[in-house]
Amino acid sequence: MNIKTSFNKLVKENWAFLLFVFVLFASRSSFADWYLVPTGSMLPTIVQGDRIFVDKMAYRLEVPFTDIEIMQTGQPKRGDIVVFNSEKAGNRLVKRLIGEPGDRIAIRDNKLIINGELTFYEDNENELHKTEHLGNVAHIVQFMPVAEARDNFAQVIVPEGHYLVLGDNRNNSADSRYYGFVPAIEIQGKANKVLLSLDPDNYYLPRKERFYIPLI
User: Fold this and answer.
1) What are the C-alpha distances in Å from 66 to residues 26, 84, 90, 214?
2) pTM of the model as a whole
3) Catalytic-role residue among 30, 56, 86, 95
4) Cα–Cα dist 36/198, whole Å
5) Cα within 13 Å of Cα(46), Cβ side
């Protein structure tokens, strides 16, 4: 039996399983995916060991296994948590979207100024946390004291086709302050919820209190 005959036999005998695998990976490529968060750049919203659900149809529908757009389904909005493949960072990142195309963004003493207006912050029981209001989205940000924090930058204008992103762990996040604006084509989807969470500091035991919690 030659190689071609063996291959055809293998496909014929296992076509249902192979179809299932193809559909599974095609779905992860174009419709929905999950992402294991390895760092604390989005603390306290997302913690190390969270596996987050990513809606890959939130902004566009693509041909499976490619970046070819079939249709646009929405636009990233300020306050969204986005997952993107950063060419400059050489890594897949998850951050909070702060600036949309045309926005004027600055930071003064760790407070955002968006289009000339100072963002509203509320104090929290934890003195390192504040509630940041981005329009209709209110979320907690963390301000850990670190040396040489990038807690100030002069006003920049977000160019067309790009976005400005920051981590919720504001002083401990490699984001647009380091890698610049994020091209729209790099954004893979919107993170909606934590599916499950395993604690790397406690033998990877599950954190049941974090299962299925919404992120937005």
Assistant:
1) 10, 14, 18, 29
2) 0.85
3) 95
4) 10
5) 33
pLDDT for res 4:
57
pLDDT for the residue numbered 216 = 80
Question: Is 173 designated active site?
Answer: no
Long-range contacts formed by 22-27: CB under 8 A, 24+ apart: 25/64, 25/65, 26/64, 26/65
- Indicate if 95 belongs to the active site: yes
Query: DSSP letter string over the chain?
Result: --HHHHHHHHHHHTHHHHHHHHHHHHHHHHTEEEEE--SSTTTTTS-TTEEEEEETTSSEEE-TTS--EEEE-----TT-EEEEEETTTTEEEEEEEEE-TT-EEEEETTEEEETTEEPEEEE-SSTTEEEEEETTEEEEEE----TT----EEEEEPPTTEEEEE-SBTTS--SHHHH-PEEGGGEEEEEEEEEEEEETTTTTEE-GGGTTEE--
Q: What is the pLDDT of residue 210?
A: 97
Q: Which of 30, 41, 173, 176 is catalytic?
A: 41
Contact 168, 44 (CB under 8 A): yes
